[in-house]
């Protein structure tokens, strides 16, 4: 058996992949919950029409209840996963936009009747306010 190929991803891309996987799992859980809800409606309809007796309805409800435990547990785990991803996104915020500023300083001096000048540039970054 060969090892799985893990693509090179930046941290940001990996976090986006995790968010997408959470969304897909949430969709799958929604389908399960919807199917179980339809079962409940069917059992209620059969009971109302007296197609099944109350004991059979209770058995069906117990089976549905057991089935619903898995998505509920999974939902809790997905919530933890989502919180961890959101925390990681806060730890690595995108760099704010910056502009490079330049200052030029020039000095002129008179030494023994000779004029001497020199200048130097200083570079620094400033954040850009996007308003």
Count, helices: 2
Model regions low in confidence, pLDDT < 50 over at least 5 residues? none
Query: How many domains in all?
Result: 2
- Largest sheet descriptor: 2 strands, antiparallel
How many angstroms separate the termini?
A: 55 Å
Name the overall outline: rod-shaped
Structural classification: alpha+beta
Please estimate the helix content. 55-70%
Widest β-sheet, arrangement of strands = 1-2
Got a strand count?
2
Strand content: 15-25%
Question: What's the gist of this structure?
Answer:
The chain contains two helices and two strands; from the N terminus they run H-H-E-E. By secondary structure, it is an alpha+beta fold.
Describe it.
The structure is a single chain. This protein has 2 domains: 11-91; 98-127, no CATH class. 58% of the residues lie in helices and 21% in strands. It has helices at residues 11-48, 54-91, and strands at residues 98-111, 114-127. The protein has a two-stranded antiparallel ribbon. A hairpin with a 2-residue loop joins strand 1 (98-111) and strand 2. The radius of gyration is 33 Å and the shape is rod-shaped. The protein starts with 10 loop residues before the first helix and ends with a strand. The mean pLDDT is 82.
């Amino acid at each position: 058996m060969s090892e799985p190929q893990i693509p090179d991803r930046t941290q940001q891309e990996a976090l986006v992949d995790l968010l997408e996987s959470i969304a897909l799992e949430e969709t799958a859980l929604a389908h399960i919950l919807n199917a179980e809800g339809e079962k409940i409606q069917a059992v209620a309809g059969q009971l109302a029409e007296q197609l099944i007796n109350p004991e059979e309805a209770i058995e069906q409800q117990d089976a549905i209840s057991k089935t619903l435990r898995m998505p509920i547990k999974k939902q809790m785990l997905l919530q933890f996963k989502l919180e961890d991803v959101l925390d990681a996104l806060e730890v690595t915020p995108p760099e704010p936009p910056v502009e490079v500023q330049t200052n030029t300083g020039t000095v002129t001096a008179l030494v023994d009747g000779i004029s001497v000048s020199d200048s130097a540039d200083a570079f620094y970054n400033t954040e850009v306010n996007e308003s």
